[in-house]
């Protein structure tokens, strides 16, 4: 797959919805070909994790627990990718009604038909009626929603009064910039929201955070270590689809991601939020 470096820079700098779609169309197969799986998240790593797919499944299970999916009837997975997490949740809870929302039509079209509803829509205008959902989940996708407050506002609108919003989102410190992020400023193609910014937007849009976990130490460094330790094997897989410069950029980004995490420049938040009653806002 040939990727024009100029296009890559434009997608990264502008980061509108169309750019994000093109970026994922071009680069998400790297994760698929590298792992052999159908999930696009970084995964949660600990001393027992041997493979990226195991880490990705673990993060999906953590999100399921945080969102209390087991007690839900109808949920929306917003920014659903190619439905990897939704398939896991569907297999665990067959009666659960899952709507996978994705602005990227080609990703949805690539998934075989199933009993998971596929909705091609933006996170800024969720295609659900008021107070119709038990859960809204954004598993490593909300970092692309711009402005993120619109997503929180829409989530509040579509959730029932006892509904839960659960997100897992990469974050950056407020003083992160080109000089300290280096190549990540260009290759970490999201809005680089700070935790403070996210918390403020959640509060402004009628939610209370009832659980918050910072798990960056179990995300970035161990993922980078896996790549660095297995680069020869992964390089062969990546070069079967991409040019050498793409793999080189990925390699350098992994190293920088590890150092940025260890320096506290980037983090990863898992947040569970409940709607506030109208009279308490």
From TrEMBL:
Q: Does the keyword Hydrolase apply?
A: no
Residues of the Methyltransferase type domain: 77-167
Which GO molecular function annotations are given, in alphabetical order? cyclopropane-fatty-acyl-phospholipid synthase activity
Q: What SUPFAM superfamilies does the record tag this protein with? A: S-adenosyl-L-methionine-dependent methyltransferases
Pfam families attached to this UniProt entry: Methyltransf_11 (PF08241)
Record's protein name: Cyclopropane-fatty-acyl-phospholipid synthase
InterPro entries attached to this UniProt entry: Methyltransf_11, SAM-dependent_MTases_sf
User: Is-annotated flag, keyword Ligase?
Assistant: no
Q: Which UniProt keywords apply?
A: Methyltransferase, Transferase
Tell me which Gene Ontology terms the entry assigns under biological process.
Answer: methylation
Q: What is its EC number?
A: 2.1.1.79
Q: What top-level branch of life does the organism fall under?
A: Archaea
């Amino acid at each position: 797959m040939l990727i024009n470096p100029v296009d890559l820079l434009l997608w990264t700098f502008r980061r509108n919805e169309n750019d994000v779609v093109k970026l994922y169309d071009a680069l998400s197969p790297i994760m698929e070909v590298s792992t052999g799986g159908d999930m696009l998240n970084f995964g949660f790593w600990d001393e027992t994790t041997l493979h990226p797919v195991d880490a990705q499944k673990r993060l999906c299970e953590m999100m399921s627990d945080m969102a209390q999916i087991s007690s839900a009837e109808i949920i929306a997975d917003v920014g659903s990718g190619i439905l990897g997490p939704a398939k896991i949740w569907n297999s665990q809870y067959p009666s659960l009604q899952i709507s996978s929302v994705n602005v990227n039509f080609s990703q949805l079209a690539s998934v075989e038909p199933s009993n998971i509803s596929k909705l091609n829509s933006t996170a800024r205008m969720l295609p659900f009626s008021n107070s119709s959902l038990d859960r809204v989940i954004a598993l490593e996708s909300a970092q692309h929603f711009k402005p993120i407050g619109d997503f929180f506002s829409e989530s509040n609108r579509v959730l029932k009064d006892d509904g839960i919003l659960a997100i897992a989102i990469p974050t950056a410190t407020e003083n992160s910039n080109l000089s300290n992020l280096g190549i990540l400023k260009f290759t970490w193609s999201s809005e680089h929201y700070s935790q403070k910014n996210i918390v403020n937007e959640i509060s402004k849009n009628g939610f209370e955070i009832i659980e918050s976990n910072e798990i960056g130490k179990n995300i970035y460094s161990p993922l980078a270590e896996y790549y660095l330790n297995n680069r020869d094997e992964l390089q062969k897989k990546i070069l079967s689809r991409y040019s050498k410069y793409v793999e080189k950029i990925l390699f350098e980004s992994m190293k920088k991601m590890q150092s940025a995490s260890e320096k506290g420049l980037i983090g990863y938040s898992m947040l569970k939020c409940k709607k506030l009653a109208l009279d308490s806002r």
